């Protein structure tokens, strides 16, 4: 029996016991990672941390499909558009630097519901992932952010199923290609003015937006910039030094993001020629 199988069995078999332990242990505020946290927050974060730790140890592969599944008509497929007005190439230079990595059709999910007509304004959202986990679907566990953001703004949100770096042909710049595919879809297919498009990204999704904007500004200026780009705890430093410093952070023991997740993400996303 492999080590990963043993770890999976251990995690699943002991989870009920650990849940009960957390429920009881965190009743006194003094036992919570932060006394200001509610009991629910303390227990939930322990569960999330265990979930992520399990996925990292198992090198879990989030299912990716272009079929709607449980999301029904909220799920759509975006096809890459290689050129826009005047024959301008959409993907060039850095985004065309690796022959094995080419633009592909990608999925996306509307939040909170599918618009009844073509929207006049839009938020394009990129979920957190460390470039190796999760997705935009309701079942992927990343729907709270876009749902809440839509409630606060009143704008429809399209959350993007960008490629995760789990294979050699899905490392950088695959996810950036997908980000451009989504933005060009909004500009060219939905015909939404760039002044009415907002880019939103959490964690690795924030990193993705920064890379996308840098590409537009430095290598493809004829693609217009969006209205704005709010970033939610963006992952801006993927160096080994930054990874090492994670464990030195004063909040490390109460955080659910650990060194192993960052290490897996950076080693998967960054191709050897960029190291």
From TrEMBL:
This is Alpha/Beta hydrolase protein. GO terms for molecular function: hydrolase activity. The chain crosses the membrane at residues 7-25. Signal peptide: none annotated. It comes from the Eukaryota. PANTHER family: AB HYDROLASE SUPERFAMILY PROTEIN C4A8.06C, ALPHA_BETA HYDROLASE FOLD-3 DOMAIN-CONTAINING PROTEIN. SUPFAM superfamilies: alpha/beta-Hydrolases. GO terms for biological process: antibiotic biosynthetic process; monocarboxylic acid biosynthetic process. Residues 123-270 form the Alpha/beta hydrolase fold-3 domain. Keywords: Hydrolase, Membrane, Transmembrane, Transmembrane helix.
């Amino acid at each position: 029996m492999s080590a990963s199988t043993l770890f999976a069995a251990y995690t699943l078999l002991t989870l009920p016991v650990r849940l009960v332990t957390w429920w009881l242990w965190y009743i006194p505020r003094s036992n919570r990672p932060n006394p200001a946290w509610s009991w629910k927050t303390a227990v939930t974060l322990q569960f999330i941390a265990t979930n992520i730790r399990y996925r990292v140890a198992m090198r879990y592969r989030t299912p990716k499909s272009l079929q709607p599944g449980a999301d029904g008509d909220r799920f759509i497929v975006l096809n890459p558009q290689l050129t826009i007005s005047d024959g301008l190439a959409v993907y060039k230079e850095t985004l065309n630097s690796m022959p094995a990595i080419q633009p592909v059709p990608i999925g996306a999910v509307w939040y909170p519901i599918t618009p009844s007509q073509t929207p006049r304004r839009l938020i394009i959202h990129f979920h957190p992932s460390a470039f190796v986990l999760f997705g935009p679907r309701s079942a992927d566990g990343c729907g709270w952010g876009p749902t809440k953001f839509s409630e606060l703004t009143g704008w429809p949100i399209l959350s993007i199923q960008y490629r995760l770096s789990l294979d050699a042909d899905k490392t950088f710049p695959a996810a950036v290609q997908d980000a451009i595919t989504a933005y060009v879809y909004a500009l060219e297919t939905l015909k939404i003015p760039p002044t009415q498009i907002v880019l939103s990204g959490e964690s690795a999704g924030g990193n993705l937006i920064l890379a996308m904007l840098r590409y537009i500004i430095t290598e493809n200026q004829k693609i217009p910039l969006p209205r704005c780009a709010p970033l939610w705890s963006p992952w801006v430093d993927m160096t080994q030094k930054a990874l090492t410093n994670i464990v030195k952070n004063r909040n490390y023991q109460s955080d659910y993001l650990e060194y192993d997740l960052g290490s897996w993400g950076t080693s998967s996303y960054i191709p050897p020629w960029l190291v």
